[in-house]
Specification:
Layout lengths: L1 H19 L1 H15 L7 H5 L2 H14 L6 H19 L4 H22 L5 H62 L5 H31 L8 E4 H5 L3 H10 L3 E5 L5 E4 L1 H18 L4 E8 L3 E7 L7 H4 L19 H10 L4 E7 L3 E9 L4
Helix pairs in contact: 1-4, 2-6, 4-5, 4-7, 5-7, 6-7, 7-8, 8-13, 10-11, 11-13
């Protein structure tokens, strides 16, 4: 008990010293950081942003007796996120972000030593632990925001290109329709040419739309709109085309599910994910069957799709959900279907998985929460 009281008093002294010398710590930190980052043309007020909050939190955590790993992470989360976002916008790299904290720790320990409040190794370790907890959260937030910004920029570029492609494509489709109206009735061979042109236009439009959808899902620009629905309502628009395609290839298709199973999910995203899995299974299965069955669990549903394709090698299976990855198959396609399925599922808090055996087939399954809380 006496030891605990003694530690509390020591921590209170440390916290009090941080409060008293807060402005001095910040000024020293700012001078040294600007000297070390002379190439960074950032206003001092922009650099200091958030540092006072870090120091106040260190003092508060010392008074509360928290370690740097447990309570510390919860306290740091909001500050670290905002700080990291600011540094990404200012063009800092991750080494410079860490450099800030190393310098802050060095100056903080130096000032506390001057105050005579650092009396043992345990106190130093506690300060170091608290700062390291802040570094951990800041680095994680920095990486997340940097990657998000990179994806967003990429999506904007692709969106611009897609828009530029859509304009001439729309013009070509319109001109084709006009020509059919003004030209004499087409011969059989001319009709076949028209059909080829029409299918090519449709394929181009689908490709543009799919590329855009992948990019929009990546940066969260596709709205997530959960509604109360059922499995049957989601699958009714999807299955007829799947069954027709399977039958045209001579495949057996078997769907096992309870159509009245209630769900609170986004029907458009869910239908897109399941349709892409089924399209993929039918496309790559040349003989045999494709099976769909839905497993109902207490808090989620699992949609299983099993086929009898040639199988996917293990090394390719790891990348199967990446955009444009088509593996060693010679089948025509864009490699976007499974990428769209994964993003449509993850946008709803679900997950998607795959397993395969060469010469036996593939098993894909996705999980979705059964209700939104």
């Amino acid at each position: 008990m006496e030891t605990a009281d003694s530690e509390r008093r020591e921590h209170d002294l440390l916290a009090g010293a941080i409060d008293r010398r807060c402005r001095d710590i910040i000024d020293r930190w700012l001078r040294q950081l600007r000297a070390e980052l002379r190439h960074r043309n950032v206003e001092p007020t922009a650099l200091v942003d958030g540092i006072e909050d870090y120091l106040k939190n260190v003092a508060a955590l010392l008074r509360g007796g928290s370690s740097g790993t447990a309570g510390g992470e919860r306290v740091w989360a909001a500050i670290a996120k905002e700080h990291a976002i600011t540094r990404v916008r200012q063009g800092f790299d991750i080494d410079e972000l860490i450099q800030e904290f190393v310098l802050l720790r060095k100056i903080l320990l130096s000032v506390l030593d001057e105050e005579g409040t650092l009396t043992n190794r345990q106190q130093i370790d506690r300060i170091v632990d608290l700062i390291e907890a802040a570094v951990k959260l800041a680095v994680r937030s920095y990486v997340e925001h940097r990657d998000y910004q990179a994806k967003r920029t990429e999506a904007e570029h692709i969106g611009f290109v897609a828009h530029e492609l859509r304009n001439p494509l729309s013009t070509a489709i319109l001109m084709q329709r006009q020509l059919r109206k003004v030209l004499p009735p087409a011969t059989k061979s001319q009709e076949q040419l028209y059909d080829v042109i029409t299918r090519s236009h449709a394929r181009l439009r689908m490709l543009i739309d799919r590329v855009l959808l992948v990019e929009q899902l990546d940066v969260g620009e596709v709205d997530y709109r959960p509604v109360s629905t059922t499995i049957g309502e989601i699958l009714d628009p999807v299955l007829p085309a799947i069954v027709a395609t399977a039958q045209a290839k001579g495949l057996l298709f078997d769907g096992q599910f309870e159509p009245h199973t209630p769900l609170d999910i986004d029907p458009i995203l869910t239908a897109s994910a399941i349709q892409n899995l089924l399209d993929n299974a039918v496309k790559y299965t040349d003989r045999g069957h494709v099976d769909l069955w839905i497993e109902q669990r207490p808090d989620e549903i699992v949609v299983h799709v099993r086929d009898q394709c040639a199988g996917i090698p293990e090394q390719e299976l790891k990348r199967i959900f990446e955009p444009f990855h088509r593996g060693s198959t010679h089948k025509p396609g864009t490699g976007l279907g499974l990428a769209i399925a994964r993003r449509a599922v993850e946008r709803q808090g679900g997950s998607i998985h795959a397993e395969s055996a060469i010469g036996v087939g593939c098993h894909f399954w996705l999980t979705l929460p059964q209700s939104v809380h």
